[in-house]
Design a protein that fits this description.
The complex is a heterodimer of chains A (about 110) and B (about 110).
Chain A: E1 4-7, E2 10-13, E3 19-25, E4 31-38, E5 42-51, E6 54-57, E7 65-66, E8 76-78, E9 87-94, E10 103-104, E11 108-112
Chain B: E1 3-5, E2 10-14, E3 19-21, E4 24-26, E5 32-38, E6 44-50, E7 56-58, E8 64-68, E9 73-78, E10 87-94, E11 102-103, E12 107-112
The chains are: A mainly beta (about 110), B mainly beta (about 110).
């Protein structure tokens, strides 16, 4: 089944403790992206990647890192999480070019205390 | 920069009645427009897209959307609403050149039996 897999689905952590949210897709998509969803703000893009070893900042990149060492994986790294990063995170992928539709993962609900 | 506006946070409609969820956009260039739906505790699911051609686009679950270039709108419609259509709906826009997909803030649709 074609899908985007995120792990974990739920995570509670403490301020300052580094964490990684994994994202993997099995559709050979070139384009991958991370979004955060907050009430009243919709989805805001954190980082995106057009292909392997190519990443770029989205609208809200502060406090996050990403890497794209292989085509299928696009992990999101929070080096020192803070409470304002408590949110629902989604990974998405698509074929390259602007016409491709995104396939989304099921989301990761992160709580930083 | 491209942007999307969904002017209604909430839309309420009676089951069996037609529904409309509004979306307007602002881009430089030709837009590629998308609608996604999010059910509780789920990721976003693709509904339909407009790339080029016929202004009326048909999608999943009986939904359709009309592209209106002069009004820069892409409203989502369904002739007869179902209770199961109750969800959060997102409009999104992209332009050519591998640009990111920009989302609106979402409209919560509530269909009442």
């Amino acid at each position: 089944e074609a899908q985007v897999t995120q792990n974990p689905r739920y995570l509670i952590t403490v301020t300052g403790k580094k964490l990684t949210v994994t994202c993997s897709q099995n559709m050979n998509h070139e384009y991958m992206s991370w979004y955060r969803q907050d009430p009243g703000l919709g989805l805001r893009q954190i980082y995106y990647s057009m292909n392997v070893e190519v990443t770029d900042k989205g609208d809200v990149p502060e406090g996050y890192k990403v890497s794209r060492k292989e085509k299928r994986n696009f992990p999101l790294i929070l080096e020192s999480p803070s409470p304002n990063q408590t949110s629902l995170y989604f990974c998405a992928s698509s074929f390259g070019g602007s016409r491709g539709r995104y396939t989304f993962g099921s989301g990761t609900r992160l709580t930083v205390v | 920069a491209q942007s999307v506006a969904q002017p209604e946070d909430q839309v309420n409609v009676a089951e069996g009645n037609p529904l409309t969820v509004k979306c307007t956009y602002s881009v430089s260039g030709n837009p590629y427009l998308f609608w996604y739906v999010q059910y509780p505790n789920r990721g976003l699911q693709f509904l339909l897209k407009y790339i080029t051609g016929d202004n009326l686009v048909k999608g999943s679950y009986g939904f359709e959307a009309e592209f209106n270039k002069s009004q820069t709108s892409f409203h989502l419609k369904k002739p007869s609403a179902l209770v199961s259509d109750s969800a959060l709906y997102f409009c999104a826009v992209r332009v050519s050149g591998n640009t990111p997909l920009v989302f609106g803030k979402g409209t919560r649709l509530s269909v009442i039996a």
